[in-house]
Amino acid sequence: MQNRWKDKEAKAAIDRWGDALGEAVALCLYTAKLIGCEPDLVLHGGGNVSVKCKVRTLLSEDLEAVRVKTSGADMSHLTPSELPALDLPYLRRLRKLDRLTDEEMVNAFRTHLFDANAATPSIETLLHAFLPHRFVDHSHADAILALTNQPDGESLMRDVLGDRVAVLPYVRPGFELAKAAADAVDQSPQVEGLVLMQHGLVTFAEDARTSYERHINLVSACEEFLCQKQRDRTLTVSFRTEETPAVLATRAAPILRGLLATKTGNEDRPYLRPILEWRATDEIMAFVNSAEARTLAPTVAVTADHMIRTKIKPMFVEQPAWNDVAELRTQLEQAVARFREDHLTESAVENAPRVVLLPGAGAFCWGPTKTAACIAADITEHTIDIKTAAHFTGSYQGLSADHLCDMETREIQRRKLNDESDGPLAGQVVIVSGGAGPIGAAVADCCIAAGAHVALTDVNETHLAEIVSRIDKEHGAGRAIGLPMDVTDEKSVHDGYERVAVHYGGVDVVVPNAGIAHVSPIESLALEDFRRVMNVNAVGYFLFMREGIRLLESQGLGGNIIINASKNVFGPGKDFGAYSASKAAGHQLGKVAAIELAPKNIRVNMINADAVFGDPDTPSGLWATIGPSRAKSRNLKPEDLPDYYRRRNLLKTRIHGRHIGNAVVFFACNATPTTGATLPIDGGVVEAFPR
Known about the structure:
Layout: H1 7-21, H2 23-36, E1 48-56, E2 62-68, E3 85-87, H3 88-93, H4 102-111, H5 125-130, E4 135-139, H6 142-148, H7 153-161, E5 165-168, H8 175-187, E6 193-196, E7 200-205, H9 208-230, H10 245-260, E8 262-263, E9 271-272, E10 275-279, H11 282-288, H12 293-296, H13 304-310, E11 315-316, H14 325-342, E12 355-358, E13 362-367, H15 370-393, H16 401-409, H17 411-414, E14 429-432, H18 438-449, E15 453-458, H19 461-475, E16 480-484, H20 490-504, E17 509-511, H21 527-555, E18 559-564, H22 577-597, E19 602-609, H23 621-633, H24 641-648, H25 657-668, E20 678-681
Parallel strand pairs: 5-6, 11-12, 14-15, 14-17, 15-16, 17-18, 18-19, 19-20
Antiparallel strand pairs: 1-2, 1-4, 2-3, 4-7, 6-7, 8-9, 10-13, 12-13
Helix pairs in contact: 1-2, 6-9, 6-15, 10-14, 10-20, 10-21, 13-16, 18-25, 20-21, 21-22
């Protein structure tokens, strides 16, 4: 473990925060960053730091306080607002109590914050308050957990660290652990830290650097011990396949997504659908393909702090039937059913697995959002490393299921889960062709605002990357993925859907949108130009829909296909024969699909929009190409086209991409029991009224 302390950086922290908060608080924030940037110490909101200091009140009184990290805050980017101050003397008086419920404890925190608007501090606040030291650092170090999660973990820790630490058996985090930790330090005041069995490490000192360096030194000693014991030890390969993990993952992901979806009882929104993060690193593959995985994989989480993200244990299928999709589905159905039954308790928050380990394919980690799934995947990678290290140095033994279940259902713990998705499309995945254009980009924005994740496809890779980059900045990373795709190429479309399957787990809403146009009277329309337009707008819609239908059926969750047709379907214009015919073909495909797919609860609806010209940030490539010719057909200047289209509709309004996006959201959230319908978005063009 690298000692990252640098005097120059510590001084920079003091320069940044010292005047407003004091030097001690500034150094505590710096220490948090050092610990938080080490994934082998803490992951995603885990760990804690604190500092005891003075707080000046409005009456110019300097009162004793303890600043403790807020629950779930990320140590690597900890801000002053995430290190709120509490009344230290009051908190210390709580130690004399025999018991304190979570509700009473949280109330004590809330009523004794110096800032009433501050976020609620960590569940371990009392541990930090009861310890006498000025600085306290807490982590869930992998090396510590690899040793404490063994049957003889206590003796191992004493052998490795000697009397430098006091070793505490597992104690329920919160009030009970705070009292036990304080008692241990009272009995052994000379120790540098506390090893909390199946939990982590706490170090302390009167200055920030000493507390931090004690932490690093103790973890390093454990790492060195593990390295010596693990030397030349390997996992035994027991599963082999010639197919790549990615190929196998595309088979399993949509099946799993369908099985892991949670029924809601709401007929308009029947399922809560999980989002996938799939991992197949060398370490993961060595683990899932090993003989040891049979016993190690189904074991419980290494610590309760990790478990709220991954559940108590993963689901493991020993011999997946990769060569028989029907048999594979049966295996997964049975495995999920057993897992749900084993985890069905009155207090269970949910009983579907969050982590599925499959030999040949790797780790499938699920969450309500891509961010949550990635967190579960990061923890899974470290869990595999820890379990492997424990196996190589002895045998792995986690906490009892009762302890883990207790922590999983504690409200004070679940408040850390702040990555739930909101909106009528929460958990849904929308795939849009022509995603680099103004309509596709606007559909993405509207769907993401409604809670969805979006896969955008386009042949223009440069523009596509720009759109996804902009979405990341505006909506947060993970909400969108860009997939280069030629909708006229069968393999390109197939490969694109496979990438969506392993990136998000599947698809729920299919939006055929990519289109081109050509302006010419029929008598002079070249066959090559006619075929080119038909190939993109008709064949492209067919291929995009067909692959989407296959993925929707594999999941078995129903879904929506929403076709961006055109006002020209009902109200064609002269010199626009190729475009109007191709859009009518796509529209008719949608009607047939609505008939065929209704028994599978897949709804198909059409949107007939008038011209969308885009904006300076996302101009319309179609209108840039055909605008001059279309203007000429109407005896207009190209720059007059947008106003012409505005003035010709009943509402005298301009049509924007967001209007199509809003319609997609309307259909996708099943606001009405509608399929086979056409929704005009044209401001009211009489000749294009549906009939």
